[in-house]
Structure formats: C-alpha cells, structure tokens
C-alpha cells in the first residue's frame, strides 16, 4: 500500500511538508493518559499566550484554505478546530487511545494529524483534487460527493477518506475498537514546517512505540520524495 500527494498538490503548495507513520498491533486498551496530559499542558501554555488564530501554523492553513477557495473561518483545519474546542471546553471527547494521543499531539504542535484504519482503505491513498464523482461517508452514515477540484484523500475505489484536505475526515476509515493497523498523516504549510513535522513524527513514533508493541514505520514526504510505502 502507498500514500502520496499528487504532483498537482505539490506544485500548488510547494511549501507543504508532510510526515507519515504506519503502525500495526493497535489495540484499544493502551493507557495514554500521562502522555495526553503532557501534550495538553503544552497546548494550554501556548493558548494562555495567544489564541489559536494567531499561531503561525494555523495562519498558514487559513491562507491555504483561502487559496483553495474556502472561507478559512467557515472551514477550519483539523488542528484549528481541535485547539478552538480545547480552549473553549478545556478538554476534548475521548474516542480511542490512538486517536486521543494523536489529538493531544496535534494540540501541542498546532498541526493537523489524520488517522486512518488501513483495513478500510482500498489500494493506495492519495491527496488530490476531486473529480466530483467520489463517494464520502459522513459520521452520520450519509453518502456525499465532494465538489469538483476539492482537495480530498482518495483511495483506489474512488472513495474520499477526508474532504477539504485537513478539514473533515470520513467515518469510513475512522479508527474504532477493532482497528489493528493505522496510517497517520501530519501536514503543515508554515515557514518552519519541515523542522516541526520532523519533531512531530519523532515524538509520535516514540509515543506509539511506548504504548503499543510494534514500532511504527515512518517517512518524511516532500516533492523530491513524495511516496510512503507501507
């Protein structure tokens, strides 16, 4: 299986930096509370100094959404949405230890992280422009079709596993108690994205290896090296 961004995405967003991890032997019994508390403390310290809209990581995604023709305050990146909810509610709902851990790290780095159940993905997964014919399953069980030219995560069966790039993930490949294998993707557009994505991937890989038995496979993605085989 392979994960990649299309050439057109790299050409349109040359500032993009991305990291990917694949991990097996996932289970829902891991105790990630200590790690979550540590990463949330980092986010709380940043939010005490400024709201999330002032973070360079978030501002870069807002500019990216504007370039995609989206209103950045109507469609927020996953990281901005998490930070906003965390600031307002002083917490996030618990879903699954893997997702909870990734959400906490996303808060700390202000970088969106997507987590996919790889058994729900057909063939390869590519971040590309939609044709408009692809299917997307909402968390409510409804089928939608992304708009033409919308940036989606698409698999070989023409199913969209995320809409509006880092805005909205599909219910189809969301992690659930039965998930055993996961693909994790982090993406950033800000000036220090390369360095920050590198730290995020290293931090997440260490946390995954600590809480689950199998060490993850990792990759840093760029225009020169755009594919992750796992």
Keywords:
single chain; 230 residues; alpha+beta; six-stranded mixed sheet; 12 strands; 22% strand; globular
Order of helices and strands: EHEHHHHEEEEEEEEHEE
Q: Largest sheet, described in full?
A: 6 strands, mixed
Instruction: Tell me the fraction of residues in β-strands, as a range.
Output: 15-25%
Which residues form runs of ≥5 with pLDDT under 50? none
The helix content, as a percent range, equals 25-40%
Helices, by number, come to: 6
Distance between the first and last residues' Cα: 6 Å
Biggest sheet strand order reads 9-8-7-4-1-12
Task: Give the CA-based shape.
Answer: globular
The number of E-state strands comes to 12
State the secondary-structure class: alpha+beta
Backbone CA Rg? 16 Å
Mean pLDDT score, rounded? 97
Reconstruct the topology from this structure.
Layout: E1 2-5, H1 7-12, E2 17-23, H2 33-49, H3 56-67, H4 78-89, H5 97-109, E3 113-117, E4 125-129, E5 136-137, E6 143-144, E7 151-155, E8 160-163, E9 168-169, E10 182-188, H6 193-211, E11 217-221, E12 227-229
Helix pairs in contact: 2-5, 5-6
Structure described in brief:
By secondary structure, the chain is of the alpha+beta class. The protein has six helices and twelve strands. Strand 5 and strand 6 (143-144) form a beta hairpin.
């Amino acid at each position: 299986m392979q994960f990649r961004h299309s050439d057109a995405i790299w050409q349109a967003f040359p500032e993009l930096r991305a990291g990917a991890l694949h991990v097996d032997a996932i289970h829902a019994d891991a105790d990630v509370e200590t790690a979550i508390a540590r990463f949330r403390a980092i986010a709380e310290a940043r939010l005490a100094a400024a709201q999330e809209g002032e973070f360079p990581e978030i501002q870069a995604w807002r500019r990216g959404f504007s370039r995609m023709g989206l209103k950045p305050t109507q469609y927020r990146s996953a990281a901005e949405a998490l930070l906003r909810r965390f600031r307002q509610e002083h917490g996030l709902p618990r879903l699954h230890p893997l997702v909870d851990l990734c959400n906490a790290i996303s808060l700390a780095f202000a970088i969106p992280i997507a987590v996919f159940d790889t058994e729900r993905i057909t063939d390869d997964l590519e971040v590309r422009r939609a044709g408009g014919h692809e299917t997307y399953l909402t968390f409510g069980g409804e089928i939608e079709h992304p708009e033409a030219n919308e940036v989606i995560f698409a698999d070989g069966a023409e199913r969209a596993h995320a809409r509006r790039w880092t805005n909205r993930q599909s219910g189809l490949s969301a992690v659930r108690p039965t998930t055993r294998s996961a693909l994790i993707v982090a993406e950033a557009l800000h000036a220090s994205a390369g360095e920050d994505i590198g730290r995020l991937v290293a931090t997440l890989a260490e946390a995954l290896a600590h809480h689950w038995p199998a060490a993850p496979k990792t990759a840093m993605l760029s225009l020169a090296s755009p594919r992750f085989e796992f």
